[in-house]
Input
Amino acid sequence: MVRASMMTAEPGLVFLLQLGHVGAPLPAPAPGSGIPLDELMDRLPDAFLVLDPQGGIRRANQAFLNLVQVTTESSIIGEKLGRWLSQPGAAASMLFAQLQQHGSIRLFSTQLTGDLGAEAEVEISAAGLAEAGGPFIAMVIRDISRRLPMHDVQDRLRAALGAVAERIGKTPLPLMVRDTAEVVERHCIETALRLTQGKRTAAAEMLGLSRQSLYAKLERYGIDDAPEGAREATG
Output
């Protein structure tokens, strides 16, 4: 029996596969088995929270602390999640109303503002669980601020291709085909660099190029827009 789920990772999507014997349930971890759940939570790249039904924080991982710009988990235990939402009343009320109505929510879009003023566009997924000890809410918050603004990229690509098309009747077709290929090639390289946050090795793998070929194309097109601190050493 195979259970598959898709996960986002650098430089692209990966699949998590869980396999078990047909007819035999997967064994549950025995009590006291020593699985380091707290450590695993803190290693998650996305923010993870455990909340009470009123939205008070009962557990927060390091990614959430970084997102809201606080130093210790103990300083925010009992604080309401709405404290960091861009519209503390409206966004929190809508979020928990949907959760109460449906039992779970996916990809709820809002904005978080950290204690030091940093803002981040986020997507929230959550589910409620009622146990003997009381109801709790598990929540994953993903920072999507660095996602590529596709509408801007598509507009730039259309503009570049439109400029080539305007040369019909003025430029021989072979030259127009060559120039069109260069526009598309540059667009793909710039997109790969943005998606990999300037990591050129990952961008080369995404494009199916060797690192040397990518470096040559970067020099050819004069592309040097890797984010500060993200560029890899080439020598």
